[in-house]
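Recall the central idea of this unit: under ordinary conditions, the amino acid sequence of a chain determines the structure it adopts. In this exercise we apply that idea directly, starting from the sequence alone.
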Amino acid sequence: MPVKEICEVTIVHDEVVERVQQAIPDLGAAVQIFKALADETRLKIAYTLTLEEEMCVCDVAAVIGSSVATASHHLRYLRDGDLAKSRRKGKMVYYSLADRHVHQLVKIAHVHAQEGDHNDNG
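Accordingly, the structure predicted from this sequence is:
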């Protein structure tokens, strides 16, 4: 039998609500991270950079099947959001994920999505 989606009575637990409200930090920066990764192309790029530690813009473009300009635009968006970093080596620009946290976020999201395919109860 499915669980009803709402409480059958309204009882607000004031102490719990107040404690939680006071503990919630400003989540604006976290929102920006998820907005950046909510775009399928940018998430694909981020995932690509979990597989290869560093890639040039041309290779990223080839992986995602886009122009170099499009790949560069998405990579710059990730860099501006502190999710990726870049370095120039001669005439080439190479990108990598900003740190292990970004790597973990991308990998965990993928694993969670795969588990969701097999477990509808979350």
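The helical segments are 14-23, 28-37, 40-51, 57-64, 68-80, 100-118.
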